[in-house]
Write a structure and sequence with these properties.
By secondary structure, this protein is α+β, with helices and mostly antiparallel strands. Helices cover about 55% and strands about 10% of the residues.
C-alpha cells in the first residue's frame, strides 16, 4: 500500500459546498438512484456532528438556502451518485424550485441518532412503488449499506467501526511525524500535479471571496487604513479567510478538501503555499510541504475523530500547515517540527466547533495566524515542552493527548451545542 496515495484518495478531493450536507446529498442520491419515479418522502438520520455542521451553512446553487434538508432533497432529485462530492454542480433552477416545494410540503425530515459517535448518514426513501435505504458511515463517501425493495445489495453494518473504516487509517495511526515526512518527500510527479491542482482550485475560490464583504474583505480594509501591517501574516490570513468566506457563502466553486473538509483543505494548502511563495521557497519543496500538511491533518484526525467537537480547520489543518512551513525552511528537522506542532496545539487546541457557518472564516484566520507564529518559534527551536499542559513526551503523544481531550474531556460539548441550536430553532 502506498499510504500517501491512500490518504489522498480518501481525504483529499474536490468538494463543492460544506462536506457534511454535500455528503447527505450524495447519500440521498445513492438511495434514489435507478428508482425512476418521484419520491413521496425521505427520512434522514445523522450523527450529531453532521447535524451541527449542516444546520446553518449556505448550500451552493440554491440562491442562499441553508441546511441539510435542502442539500439532501436536491441530492435525491439529481440521483447521480457518480458525481460524488461535486453533485450539487447539477442543480438547475427547475430542480431548486421542486426541492423548495417538497420542503414546503414537509415530505422530508431529519433526526439525530445519539448512538452514532462517528460520521453517520442514514437515508430512507419511499416512492409510490419502491422503498430504498442506505447508510454512509466512517467517511463522507463510505457506503456501508444499501437496500432496495427488501433486497439487500450491500451490508457491512456487522463489521466493527474499526474494520469498516478505510484500511489506511490503522497503519497511519502507527506512523511517526518522521515517517510522514518521508512519505511527503517521496511523492511522484502525478502527486505533485494533483497538489498543484488543489492549490489552483483553492486560490480560485479565494479570489471569489475577495468580492464578498466578509472577514477577508475587512482584513484587507484594515491594511488599507493602516491599522494592520501588510506582511506574510496578513496576506495569508486574507487569502484563507476569503476562501472560507466564499465557501460558507455557498459560492458554486469546488475546494480541494483535506481530511474530508473544505476549510481544512484551505488551511492545509494555502497557508504553506503563500508562506512558501513569500519566502521564495523552491516550488517543488512547497508542494512537498503541502503533501506533509495533508498527511498530518489526516493523522491528527485519526485520534480526534472524523467530526470532532474541536475545530478541525483550526487545529488538525493548523498542525499540518505549521509543520509544512518548518519543513520548507529546515527540511526533516525532527526538533523544530515537533516544537512547532506543540506550539500550535498548546495555542488553539481547545477551540470548539459550533458547526459550519460564515463564522468559520474567523477560525480559519486564527489557525493561519497561529500556524505561522508557531512555525517561526519552532524554526528557532523554541516552544512548549512536556513540562507544560498536555504536551506529551513526543509530538505523537501530544496529538494522542489532544484526541483524549476531545473524546473524553469534551464529550458533552456537541450535545450542549446542538441542544442550544435546537432550543433556538
Amino acid at each position: 500500500m502506498n499510504l500517501y496515495k491512500e490518504v489522498v484518495k480518501h481525504e483529499v478531493f474536490p468538494a463543492m459546498g460544506c462536506t457534511e450536507p454535500i455528503s447527505l446529498a450524495l447519500a440521498a442520491a445513492i438511495a434514489a438512484e435507478g428508482l425512476d419515479e418521484p419520491f413521496d418522502n425521505i427520512v434522514f438520520s445523522v450523527n450529531i456532528g453532521t447535524y451541527k455542521n449542516g444546520l446553518a451553512v449556505t448550500i451552493p446553487n440554491t440562491d442562499g438556502e441553508k441546511g441539510n434538508l435542502i442539500a439532501g432533497v436536491l441530492g435525491a432529485l439529481i440521483a447521480e451518485p457518480e458525481r460524488k462530492m461535486e453533485i450539487l454542480k447539477e442543480v438547475t433552477p427547475a430542480l431548486l424550485a421542486r426541492a423548495k416545494e417538497i420542503l414546503k410540503e414537509k415530505r422530508v425530515s431529519i433526526g439525530v441518532d445519539p448512538s452514532q459517535t462517528d460520521l453517520y448518514l442514514e437515508v430512507r426513501l419511499a416512492t409510490a412503488n419502491h422503498r430504498s435505504s442506505c447508510i454512509v458511515s466512517g467517511s463522507h463517501t463510505n457506503l456501508i449499506y444499501k437496500e432496495v425493495d427488501g433486497k439487500i445489495l450491500l451490508d457491512r453494518r456487522a463489521e466493527s467501526s474499526a474494520s469498516r473504516r478505510p484500511s489506511y487509517k490503522d497503519p497511519l495511526s502507527k506512523m511517526t511525524v518522521a515517517d510522514l515526512v518521508d512519505l511527503a518527500e517521496n511523492i511522484d510527479e502525478e502527486d505533485l500535479l494533483f497538489l498543484k491542482r488543489g492549490v489552483e482550485m483553492n486560490l480560485a475560490i479565494s479570489q471569489e471571496g475577495m468580492k464578498l464583504k466578509k472577514v477577508g474583505y475587512y482584513l484587507l480594509d484594515l491594511i488599507e487604513k493602516g491599522y494592520l501591517l501588510d506582511d506574510v501574516f496578513a496576506s495569508t490570513k486574507i487569502m484563507t479567510a476569503c476562501a472560507a468566506d466564499a465557501r460558507m457563502d455557498g459560492v458554486a466553486l469546488p475546494v480541494m478538501s483535506s481530511g474530508g473538509s473544505g476549510n481544512q483543505g484551505i488551511v492545509a494548502s494555502l497557508v504553506p503555499y503563500n508562506v512558501g511563495k513569500s519566502f521564495k521557497i523552491e516550488e517543488r519543496t512547497i508542494y512537498k510541504s503541502i503533501a506533509l500538511s495533508h498527511l498530518l491533518n489526516a493523522y491528527v484526525k485519526v485520534f480526534t475523530g472524523e467530526l470532532a467537537c474541536i475545530c478541525g480547520c483550526a487545529i488538525a489543518a493548523g498542525v499540518g500547515a505549521t509543520a509544512a512551513i518548518v519543513y520548507q525552511q529546515k527540511g526533516k528537522d525532527l526538533c523544530s517540527i515537533p516544537y512547532a506542532i506543540n506550539n500550535l496545539v498548546s495555542d488553539i487546541g481547545g477551540m470548539i466547533c459550533d458547526g459550519a457557518k460564515s463564522g468559520c472564516a474567523f477560525k480559519v484566520v486564527s489557525s493561519t495566524d497561529a500556524a505561522i507564529r508557531a512555525a517561526y518559534l519552532g524554526i528557532h527551536r523554541h516552544g512548549i515542552t512536556r513540562a507544560e499542559g498536555f504536551v506529551g513526551r513526543t509530538v505523537e503523544e501530544t496529538i494522542k493527548n489532544l484526541g483524549h481531550i476531545a473524546e473524553i474531556g469534551m464529550a458533552k460539548v456537541d450535545d450542549t451545542i446542538v441542544g442550544i441550536m435546537l432550543g433556538r430553532k
